[in-house]
Every structure is written in C-alpha cells, then in structure tokens.
Amino acid sequence: MVGTSNGLIALLASIAAGCALGLVVGFASLRVRSDFLAVTTIGVNFLFTGFVRKQAWLGGEMGISGIPPTGLGATGNMAMILAFAFATILFSLYVDRSWMGFAFRAVGEDESAATTLGIDSRAYKLAAFGIGTAFAGLAGGLYAFFTQFITADAFDFILSVTLMAMVVIGGIGSTLGVVVAAIGLTLLPEVIRFVNDYRLLVYGGLLVLVIRVAPGGLAGVVRKLFARAS
Description:
The chain is an all-alpha fold and 230 residues long. The chain folds into 2 domains: 153 residues, no CATH class; 75 residues, no CATH class. It has 10 helices and 2 strands, in the order ααβααααβαααα. A two-stranded antiparallel sheet has the order 1-2. The longest helix is centred in the middle third of the chain and has 27 residues. The termini are far apart.
C-alpha cells in the first residue's frame, strides 16, 4: 500500500517528467506547423515507445508490474480520477478566458499577426507543450496507480489517433466540446464491439466526416445552431 505522501510525490514526478519531455519536443518542433505538427508528435510517440521497450530498467517489453495501490479502494480511485479530471477542465476553462488563452488562439490563427501584437509566439508554443504534456504525465501517473501495471503498448498508435479524434470531433479550442467527444469516443468501443478490429477505420471515417462537414467540430455545430436560433 502506498502512502499518501509517496503517491503525491509519484504524481508530481510524473507531471514534472511529462512537462520536461514536452518542452524538449516543443523546442524541437517550433518550426513545424499545422498538420505536420500532429504528425511530428505521433512520430515522437513511436520513437519513445520503441526506446522504452529496449530499456530493462523500465521493464522492457514486459512493462512495469507490481505498482503499489493507492490504498483508496476502487471507489476512492474513481473519485480521485474524477476530481483530477474536473480540476483539469476548470483549469482549461480558466486558461481559455485568460490572456494566455487569447495568446494561444492568436498564435494558432496567425503567428505573424500575433507577433505584431507583442506576443512571443515561441514562448507560448513552448508553454502549450509544457502544460499539455504535464497533464499527460498526470494522466499517466493516475493510469499506473489505477491498473498497477504499465507497458509501452498501452500508449500505441490507436490511442494517438483516438486522442486526435477527440480534439477534432469536439472542436479545436473548445474544452467542453472535447470533453463531450472524449466521453463519446470512450464509450463508442463498447457500442461497436462487434467491429472492434476496425476501430481505426471508424475513427478515421469520423475524422474525415467532421473535417469535411463540420470543420469546427461539435462546438462549431452548437455555435451555428445558437446563432440561427438568435
């Protein structure tokens, strides 16, 4: 059983490690834009998982087992994960409405115009990478405590495509839209279990459909409906 302090230290370490790796990848990807950035990060995922599989001190192909439980029990673990998820959503909404959120949107829409407004695009790109990967590290730490076993295969190409689909389908830049899409795509495999071998085809089809019909994702569709209603 892992003590509260040890568990907290482990989670903080996972956040710090994720943030550090994100800053390294972000610095190396500063000149990459748009779709190529997504391809680059997926490529980094392949490189990193390949590296982990060859490291005996990380469990190699067999992964790491015997991770101590939190001691909170199944209900306590679920409550903890939901609390962290809710806190993440609140933080994202706060950032979206802050000056940092404005800077992120400005850099994403037109980097040159953002620079003329005095926004340091390089700094905000690195900040976006650091914040995003810090939360990814937190999620990885919670996942390890929840399953008590972790391997590189848990974060494969299908997961990368799934995460990308959540963002695109929910609506890039929309926290609540992505949350709805994440819940939907998490439950979808249970609904389409009979075609589980074709999940990539289903997700790819959804991505193409959304990009073609509703580029703004679910958030864009809702905005249009409200605009028409008013």
